[in-house]
């Protein structure tokens, strides 16, 4: 049985709801300024990307990439009989909304896990790195709408490697700091 992106999304949503219901420990949530900043960044990226799709709609393909490997290879495409203007904008909207959910709830979820809390006292950086990763990947996916070749795959692979290294270096830094 193959795991799809929707299965992973539902699992994360279920874990977030479990973490919100149980008060495992006291923790400080993000302030409203940071939330507004993330909404502004994600919203402005989404608006810019939507305008790019609308402006260059004649160059859009009819295949919507929906399932990727870590090296940037597209495993699954949705095929349409017309250019993917509306489905592309909707997919990018879901990606940006997912980034907002990750930056908000992943640190809260990790703080509710006793092992992660003992290992790292500060886990908010993980949400920031995941948000950055999602926002960069949204630009790569936008490029996939217009062009699918090896350079785009290398771009996605590079983004994945850089953010994985940021996560490792951040974890080492905050582990030594605590």
From TrEMBL:
Sorted UniProt keywords: Membrane, Transmembrane, Transmembrane helix
Transmembrane segments: 36-56, 84-105, 125-147, 153-174
Protein name: Uncharacterized protein
Species whose genome carries this gene: Liquorilactobacillus mali KCTC 3596 = DSM 20444
